[in-house]
Amino acid sequence: xxxxxxxxxxxxxxxxxxxxxxxxxxxxxxxxxxxxxxxxxxxxxxxxxxxxxxxxxxxxxxxxxxxxxxxxxxxxxxxxxxxxxxxxxxxxxxxxxxxxxxxxxxxxxxxxxxxxxxxxxxxxxxxxxxxxxxxxxxxxxxxxxxxxxxxxxxxxxxxxxxxxxxxxxxxxxxxxxxxxxxxxxxxxxxxxxxxxxxxxxxxxxxxxxxxxxxxxxxxxxxxxxxxxxxxxxxxxxxxxxxxxxxxxxxxxxxxxxxxxxxxxxxxxxxxxxxxxxxxxxxxxxxxxxxxxxxxxxxxxxxxxxxxxxxxxxxxxxxxx
Length: 320
Description:
Layout (H helix, E strand, L loop, with lengths): L20 E3 L1 H9 L3 E4 L9 E3 L4 E3 L5 H4 L9 E4 L5 H11 L5 E4 L2 H7 L4 E3 L21 H4 L34 E7 L5 H12 L4 E7 L7 H9 L12 H6 L6 E4 L3 H4 L10 E4 L12 H26 L1
Parallel strand pairs: 1-6, 2-4, 2-5, 5-6, 8-9, 8-10, 10-11
Antiparallel strand pairs: 3-7
Helix pairs in contact: 6-10, 7-10
């Protein structure tokens, strides 16, 4: 095994999620330098002007992951990464179920990696731009940083899978709706934890650009560990009420964006709202299912909280 790395037996500074090792950016950089392979789950347009400058990279966009994950090497340690550490969670679960044992994930994705000042390759000429979000594209088309992977200093990156090459056409972004704000609904099972956190972060960070709400398939009671974790972040949700998504639908509410933050199976039960422009799925672990001591549960909830905050920040930047 190259580098002698075995993620199934190693311990890092972050707690594991569903048995998968979570790595801080600097921990991940160390293992990548020792022979681990980075699996970049970002879509083609997300790699247009900023990529991980590491020794070996496999580009496998999340949209094609379920169909193509079996092409990943089984005899090498793999570090899964995306933009904010959202999809790598579900990707790790899929690989673990398929028998991959030597896997880890980069907590915080490219956002935290770049913030730590770790190696990144950029090409400003290909930064996304356009008259509006629905027509964003690069100045010259193509995906130069991936196309330039063989240049000195970039490392031996694997070629994108057939059919993944970007065409330079407009990327599938959503235009800002007419009106003063983008209406966003966050959904989970009980509206007791994940959706409440997402709503609270968007309300705090999004300003008057967004209107945020949350609801659940089967509304329950606020999770006390989540209330404590959010209080640590300076946000008081202790007086929030839980709501049922069907009640909102019956009331005639409409939303521009609906974001499910639960499991894929639960997300498939969510109703479609008339006039919805975009539906997103952010698979986060359920705090109500976490077990262990109080501190162990709090550690898990804090990780979910921080992941949701990172996802909300990326969402805001994407729709800016």
